[in-house]
Specification:
This protein is an alpha/beta fold and 210 residues long. Helices cover 29% and strands 23% of the residues. The protein has 6 helices and 9 strands.
Length: 210
């Protein structure tokens, strides 16, 4: 399955430029099979999500959140895939977010790692996400290499994601899972077991150096 792990819509993320219907139409047109809606510090209501899924039966739409950690101007975030509990929007301590995510069987990804002091402090404190986000439309090759080296040292898997805020970000970076995702939390087993591949389009491929 072709999967987008990191996408924002104008309904809940002020930095996003497009309505969910516009983005989902583009995802369907470019062959995506599943998407996680990871709004900034907000989760979708179950009823809204169900209505959107009914409108777009061609693609599986799963919940999630991109939660700010550390000072707001620091710009560091944890993505919790599968999160639908509003409590995630109230927590901001990485230790609490990671513990809650694991209790619920959700996948926790450190978004745009090593971009700020908060992510470094989190990792130095021994707090480990389930995976690191490597290639996105906003990461150049040098940053991707740095993240890949960190993943080797920390023994963490890497994922690619669009970090979609605009239509132009769709179909740039994604993963393809070998098993199908039937439920939101299926992604955790897929990533931790390594049953997926990383993909990019129209980007200079990163050369991962250990």
């Amino acid at each position: 399955m072709k999967v987008e792990l990191h996408l924002h819509t104008s309904r809940y993320s002020p930095c996003a430029r497009h309505r969910p219907e516009e983005l989902l139409s583009r995802l369907v047109a470019t062959g995506y099979d599943a998407v996680y809606l990871t709004e900034h510090d907000a989760v979708w209501d179950d009823g809204e999500l169900a209505a959107l899924q009914e409108q777009f039966p061609e693609i599986r739409i799963f919940p999630g959140i991109e939660r700010s950690i550390g000072p707001i101007l620091d710009g560091q975030h944890l993505i919790i895939l599968g999160a639908r509990d509003p409590e995630y929007a109230r927590l901001c301590e990485p230790s609490e977010l990671l513990a809650r995510a694991r209790m619920h069987g959700h996948l926790a990804i450190l978004a745009h790692p090593l971009r700020s002091p908060s992510s470094a402090a989190m990792l130095l404190a021994g707090l480990r996400p389930d995976a690191l986000e490597c290639r996105t439309g906003s990461h150049d090759e040098a940053r991707a290499n740095m993240i890949a080296r960190a993943a080797v040292r920390l023994r963490l898997p890497l994922v690619n994601a669009g970090d979609v805020h605009r239509l132009v970000h769709v179909n740039k970076c994604w993963i393809e899972t070998l098993p199908d995702l039937h439920h939101a939390d299926d992604i955790r087993d897929v990533i931790l077991s390594g049953h997926y591949t990383l993909h990019t389009r129209d980007l200079v491929p990163a050369v991962y150096v250990e």
